[in-house]
Structure formats: structure tokens, C-alpha cells
Write a structure and sequence with these properties.
Helix 3 packs parallel to helix 4. Helices cover 28% and strands 29% of the residues. It is built from 6 helices and 12 strands. The mean pLDDT is 87. The strands form 3 sheets. It has a 5-stranded parallel beta sheet with strand order 10-9-8-11-12, sandwiched between helices. A 4-stranded antiparallel beta sheet has the order 2-3-1-4, covered by helices on one side. A 3-stranded mixed beta sheet has the order 5-6-7, with helices on one face. It is an alpha/beta fold.
């Protein structure tokens, strides 16, 4: 079970302060963000955290913004209550809704319903939102697709909605694996296989589309594996 370090940032002025802060924290390895009326909560795996993690976050030293923060260790067992308190429905380009079962259906073209066991991969992460935007532009019909670091399974689910098949969704975290299975079933997906593991599962695999919405250090470490399983005319999104 993986623990996370959580930071609660109060930002003034919020715009564009929160947007800049999220971008810089993402570069430092933070994996997920939940915006609120005061600023943003940010989370990083405890194994990736160190005492100097905020040293190079430039906006924290800027005279243009006032930013204060609190830090805490977040155990996985607490995630259900955490996300229920903070999870808001997301809409991407007025075409895609990402919501919990208790949210009203906005009747957009694509409707993804998730009930995460933890916050990561809920669509609040800047890169998850961007990945959905990128996938909107692609013709995924009958494209064999990999969602690496699938989290809650959002991107794999959306890929199937766009016509991709078959789809492999992989995550090293057991909670993500179990949660992806649940969300795949919740969205009535028929072409997604979910696996618990890492890039070693990719041996002898080939894909037309690879979605790698993962930590930059892991991405760089495993890039050779991704390129080896990408078809010659394939696309990789990261």
C-alpha cells in the first residue's frame, strides 16, 4: 500500500496563481491536484517525496503571490472521505463529463462515471484533463491501445468510448488496479483488460496508441519499453 504526502496550499491571487503552482508542482513529481476556493491540494507518493521537494518551486518565492501551505501524510485508507469532500464534476470542451455516481448527468456526448478509491486519475490532474483533450482529436476506431498508469481507468474508458479496442490498462498500485476494474464495469466497457504491474508486462505486446499519464521519472526510465511495443505508425501520448 502506497502512502502519499499531501500539501494544502492557500494562494492569493488564485488566478493565475493556482494554474502556475500546479504546473510547477507537476514538474516536481506531484501526481494529483484538487482545486478549492482557497487554492489547491497537491499530492505526491511518499517514496518520491523529500524534504527539498518545494525548493525549486519558483512561484513560492515570487513577490507577486502570497502562498501558504500545510503538509500531512495521507494513508490510502482515508481516500474515500477525502475525494468525496473535494470531488467536483469535470467537463472537458463541453463534450466529455467526468463525474461521480451522485452527480447529475449533464448529457454531454461522452459521460464517464467513476467512484475512485483515491484521488489520482480523477481528471483533476492537469495532465489527465489534457490527455482527454488530445484523445478527443484522435480517430481511435479499432486502435489497439495501452493506458499505462491507468489510475481510476478514466483514459482507458474514454478510449473505448472513442472506438478503441482491444485496450490494456496497467497500474502498479493494487488500489488503482481494483478501482479500474470497478470503473470499467461501471461504464459497461467490454474491450478493456486491467492488469496490476509495470512495464515488464509489455514484453511481446504491440499497440497503435499508448497513453502514458505517469510520473516523469518513471516515464523516462521505461521509455524504451514503450517504444518497443509501439507499432511503426503508432502514437504515444505522455
Amino acid at each position: 500500500m502506497i502512502n502519499y504526502i499531501g500539501y494544502s496550499f492557500k494562494v492569493s491571487p488564485i488566478e493565475p496563481g493556482v494554474e502556475i503552482l500546479i504546473a510547477q508542482l507537476g514538474e516536481a513529481g506531484f501526481e494529483s491536484f484538487v482545486e478549492n476556493e482557497d487554492g489547491v491540494a497537491a499530492y505526491i507518493q511518499e517514496n518520491d517525496w523529500n524534504t527539498e521537494i518545494l525548493k525549486d518551486i519558483q512561484i513560492l518565492n515570487s513577490n507577486e503571490f502570497k502562498i501558504t501551505f500545510e503538509e500531512e501524510v495521507i494513508e490510502q485508507i482515508n481516500w474515500n472521505s477525502e475525494w468525496e469532500k473535494n470531488f467536483n464534476q469535470i467537463q472537458v470542451d463541453d463534450l466529455v463529463s467526468i463525474r461521480a455516481p451522485f452527480h447529475e448527468n449533464p448529457n454531454l456526448k461522452y459521460d464517464i462515471v467513476i467512484e475512485p478509491k483515491m484521488s489520482f486519475g480523477t481528471g483533476h490532474h492537469e495532465t489527465t484533463h489534457m490527455m482527454v483533450q488530445h484523445l478527443l482529436q484522435l480517430d481511435l476506431t479499432n486502435k489497439k491501445t495501452l493506458d499505462m498508469g491507468c489510475g481510476t481507468g478514466i483514459l482507458a474508458i474514454f478510449a473505448e468510448m472513442k472506438g478503441a479496442q482491444p485496450i490494456d490498462a496497467i497500474d502498479i498500485d493494487n488500489w488503482c488496479y481494483v478501482n479500474s476494474l470497478e470503473n470499467v464495469e461501471r461504464n459497461n466497457c467490454k474491450h478493456i483488460s486491467v492488469y496490476e504491474g509495470d512495464a515488464s508486462l509489455l514484453m511481446n505486446k504491440k499497440y497503435d496508441v499508448i497513453i502514458a499519464n505517469i510520473n516523469r521519472n518513471i516515464l523516462l526510465n521505461d521509455m524504451a519499453s514503450y517504444m518497443n511495443c509501439l507499432n511503426d505508425d503508432g502514437i504515444i501520448l505522455f
